Amino acid sequence: MNLIIRQETKNDYLQVFNLIEQAFCNEPFSDHREQYLVEKLRKSDTFVPELSIVAEIEKEIAGYLLLSRITIKNKTGLHPSLALAPVAVKPGFQKQGIGTKLIKEGHKKAAFLGYKSVILLGHNEYYPRFGYKNASFFGISLPFDVPDENAMAIELVKNGLKGVSGEVIYPKEFFE
Hints:
The protein is of the alpha+beta class. The chain has three helices and nine strands, in the order βααβββαβββββ. Strands 1, 2, 3, 4, 5, 6, 7, 8 and 9 form a nine-stranded mixed sheet that branches. Helix 1 runs antiparallel to helix 2 (34-42). The longest helix is centred in the middle third of the chain and has 15 residues, at 98-112. The model has no long low-confidence stretch (mean pLDDT 95).
């Protein structure tokens, strides 16, 4: 398998839309609208083109990951972070390590760009393998009702969340 991990281009948008739709179609905890969220985020000021990443195999998009800017608000102010939403692998390519490679590359690029942390809502059996912990461990909460074990955070650099407790402020695109 010749896997290429690269930044998404506009030419990938339709394939990525279809991939996300397929990847989440049987997901019980999904609103099945993740592909529309990605479209909205691409047009927002929270979009970081370098953190919109595809996994390509033989010119076919097999996986996708998006990290977009968010803020954590507390008494001391606003602290920048990233939201991981979504990570998706096309059904025929799942369980082959593509999601893992996308997440590791996303973390590496985000740290290189100066980001210190990532917040996500996801499967508590999957993300801890990358170093994610319950967001509550850092004193971070999400602005909606979600089980504690599914709200997670990771420090991309040592002490990346030191003193950054508070509530995540998601861009309006997450709620439209």
